[in-house]
Amino acid sequence: MPIRFLHTADLHLDSPLRTFGDLARERRRDFLKTFDRIVNLAIKREVDCILIAGDLFDSTSVGAETVGRVQDAFSRLAGRGVQVVLIPGTHDNIISAESVYSRYQFTGVHILREPAVDEPLRLDIRGEAVFFYGFAYRSDRSREALESMRRRSGDGIHVGLLHGSLKGNPEWEMRKKDIPFSVADLVALDLDYIALGHYHDAACLEEGGRVIACYPGSPEGKKFGENGPRYALIVEVAPGNASVERVEVQTRIIREFNVDASLFAEPAALEAELARLGTSDTVGRIRLCGTVEEPLDTANLSGRVKGNFAWLELVDETDLYNSGHVKRMEREDSIRGLFIRKIHERYDAAGSDAERELCRDALRLVMGRFSRGGGN
Known about the structure:
Purple Acid Phosphatase, chain A, domain 2, elongated
């Protein structure tokens, strides 16, 4: 008989979320709402157990109010007979004496806190023996920890929890504490399913058509790049087999857009296009590109459209440097013409892309002042 799990990881509760400026406090509440949504999903879908594969919290020292919200949610799960198995991650590790897992108790939660697996945790779930393998990484004691997750004897279902990094990602600078592994390493553990955490995008790892392990990804986007829908996984596991369903759980959604401002002849048309992209639950970043004839007043434009978004960052990457308007003004016998000629000279003599970009930014800034009545 398959056992039904809800698998989540990387919730990062109590993160400062400074990326989102004046929305940061509300975003922290979003993360708690998403955690509550995950708990309610577990109850609604009548899962047998929740697997949390690290970084439930964003740090070892967590605010008491946030801890209280989590304790209350876990108590509700316990009252419904839903057990929780959890491993600390890199952010909420147990190395610190101030670790949240040392200072507080969590009802109904089995925390796998040893630096390696001596014997797996056994729980009897609906008459089925379920064995859980996981560890809390310690740099001084976890050298053979991954190997210690290899399946032990015993009939039943064998499940791993691992907060680690799949080898071969060129964008990821691997550290020892990231616990690097390959798909072959996971296959060698001979477990029925491995609940992964650490990477913030959802992905399943397969071998021979069988799901070996999955990352659920972060259930709420922590920064730009963690865009689009975010998930928790409903996983049904039987001996030698696991089936996985992604369920959207985010409170708000992060989206990034590129808009070619040169396609809009009138400012009102550009404003309408930006407003169209927004929704009340969208945390947005819009990059404006293309060659424009006049500098964009992005501060004013942002103020006019930001009400269509939960939060908006407007980035001006338009090219004024090559516009026909600037080329015409360069020939003027004026302060403006002199400035443009000097900028072009500096640009041509620049020794790096960074210096050339600085010239472009200076031109955009000063031409904006001229266009808004700064004189000539």
